[in-house]
Design brief:
Elements lengths: L10 H11 L9 H13 L3 E4 L5 E5 L11 E6 L21 E4 L2 E4 L6 H15 L8 E6 L2 H4 L1 H5 L9 E4 L7 E6 L1 E10 L10 E7 L17 H13 L5 E7 L10 E6 L2 H21 L8 E6 L9 H13 L3 E5 L7 E13 L2 E10 L2 H18 L2 E3 L14 H14 L4 E5 L4 H8 L4 E4 L4 E2 L7 E3 H18 L1
Parallel strand pairs: 3-6, 3-7, 7-19, 8-18
Antiparallel strand pairs: 1-2, 2-6, 4-5, 5-21, 9-16, 9-17, 10-12, 10-13, 11-12, 11-15, 14-15, 15-16, 20-21
Helix pairs in contact: 1-3, 6-7, 6-8, 10-12
The chain binds zinc ion.
């Protein structure tokens, strides 16, 4: 097993990456890596500062004669995701990452590698160290806790950065520029439930499982089912033919995940049970056919269950089911210019009934903030019709893609000259640090790019060696051309 990364090119970048591998830096544990960077910068006589949350900024003066060039910010996040295979002994607070070379890839032995975003950090350090490079005034911004909460970006002060051009080095496909991301905001709905005074004798558990779920932004356009919607539809349909009383309705677990499972407990008279089951199964067959391609494992489970809670009144039951059915879910609109990009979507994420309350969470996204608010308006209107309370806390900002941006046009030219091919330009339907930083620095022209990394956030994470060299050459050429 070849563990010698010092043979790889560009040498300086890999030297810094090798050092980073020896310093534990999982999310929330970035102190040692931040100190490492501060120490190096001091050794190189560069101006540094660290804010209260731990973000680090290092400034490097322009090359002689380039002082008037526009300031450029290079940005990478300090933290990595700590995941390991169950058969691997590894303490992410103490042990160095064991990296090795396999063909054109660098991987780690049974753990995440931290190429996300260690290669970006190493590239910044290699730029800061090298006195021979040509560039205008430079700032490197190293943020904390990108992976679990975007904390560093959220807490970044509005008056730290001087540059107006930001190159974020946290992308995972060499040859692709990311120029936008979605903002997000939730809606929290509270429905008061009234219950009957009489306990039910004969109860049935109705469970929908086997759905694929996935990320509520990145996977929302894949036509997958929503377990909560499916279950509500079954119950709505059955209620036209049979009498039953809902006791509870639950499903979904995370705001940012498409709900995979949902279950309801209902009370039904013995002589109505058969009819109820038939109705549920009939509607389920229709659903199963509709989802025959995207949800092959969709399953309906019906079984008797003992239940001590009182059933909902007819009115509460109707309101709950109608509300779940009416709330929007899925893709609302696609981006008019960037092929395949979802512009606006919403995820009916969680339903939870307990005692006298049903809590429903919807999580919406858009790369256009007014469109995001428009979805929340729809949710508010549905809630108004249903006569229920909804709270809509402030969300996080979008980075609206601008295909005409000056920096993008320039970098496309630079890329084409260097590699004789067009880069791909895309945006993502999820939150990124650039969205948050951009809101604090209006007018900041930003692009995100990086080397090719596969399976980030998993023990199969690997970075392609050849792509690191291309990424580096492109970064240097960009700094020269922007100066
Ligand atoms: Zn990252």
């Amino acid at each position: 097993m070849n563990t010698d990364l010092s043979s790889l090119k560009p040498e300086k970048l890999w030297k810094h990456f090798s050092a980073i591998l020896t310093i534990p830096h999982g999310s929330g544990n970035e102190k040692a890596l931040a100190s490492h960077i501060l120490n190096l910068a001091k050794k190189w006589n560069l101006e540094t500062l660290q804010d209260k949350v731990g973000n680090v900024v290092v400034r490097k003066p322009a090359s002689p004669g380039k002082e008037k060039a526009p300031g450029v910010v290079l940005q990478a996040h300090l933290d990595m995701v700590c995941e390991k295979n169950s058969d691997v002994q590894h303490d992410f607070l103490k042990d160095p990452i064991q990296a090795y070379i396999e063909g054109d890839w660098v991987k780690a032995r049974g753990t995440t590698l931290g190429a996300d975003n260690g290669i970006g950090v190493a590239a910044c350090l290699a730029v800061l160290e090298d006195k021979s490079l040509l560039h205008g005034p430079l700032e490197c911004l190293f943020t904390v806790d990108e992976e679990t909460g975007l904390t560093g970006a959220f807490k970044l002060k509005k008056d730290i950065l001087k540059g107006k051009l930001l190159l974020n080095l946290d992308s995972e496909d060499e040859g692709t520029f990311t120029i936008g991301c979605a903002g997000g905001a939730d809606s929290e709905i509270n429905l008061l439930l009234e219950r009957k005074r009489k306990k039910a004798k004969n109860c049935l558990l109705i469970k929908i499982t086997g759905l694929r779920g996935g990320h509520s932004g990145l996977d929302i356009n894949l036509g997958r089912g929503n377990a909560l919607k499916s279950l509500a539809r079954l119950l709505f349909r059955a209620s036209a033919e049979t009498r039953f009383e809902i006791i509870s309705f639950n499903g979904g677990s995370k705001r940012n995940a498409i709900p995979r499972e949902a279950w309801a407990v209902v009370a039904v008279e013995k002589d109505e049970e058969r009819s109820l089951k038939n109705q549920l199964r009939k509607e389920f067959q229709a659903l199963k056919f509709e989802y025959r391609v995207t949800e092959p494992d969709l399953t309906l489970d019906l079984r008797p269950i003992a239940e001590s809670e009182f059933p909902l009144t007819v009115e509460s039951q109707t309101r709950l089911i109608n509300l779940i059915l009416s709330l929007p879910h899925g893709v609302i609109s696609m981006h008019p210019e960037i092929a395949g990009l979802v512009e606006t979507s919403t995820n009916l994420a969680i339903v939870n009934t307990e005692g006298k309350q049903a809590r429903i969470i919807c999580s919406s996204r858009s790369s256009v903030m007014s469109a995001l608010e428009a979805v929340r308006l729809v949710i508010r209107a549905v809630c108004q019709l249903a006569g229920v309370r909804v709270v809509q806390p402030e969300g996080y900002p979008a980075w609206t893609p601008n295909l005409k941006a000056e920096l993008l046009q320039k970098m496309i030219e630079i890329y084409k000259n260097l590699f004789q091919k067009e880069p791909e330009v895309k945006a993502v339907h999820a939150g990124l640090e650039c969205g948050i930083i951009g809101e604090k620095y209006p007018g900041m022209d930003m692009i995100s790019f990086g080397p090719t990394i596969r399976n980030p956030h998993s023990p199969d994470e690997r970075v392609q060696i050849g792509s690191v060299e291309r990424f580096w050459n492109f970064l240097l050429e960009t700094l020269i051309r922007l100066s």
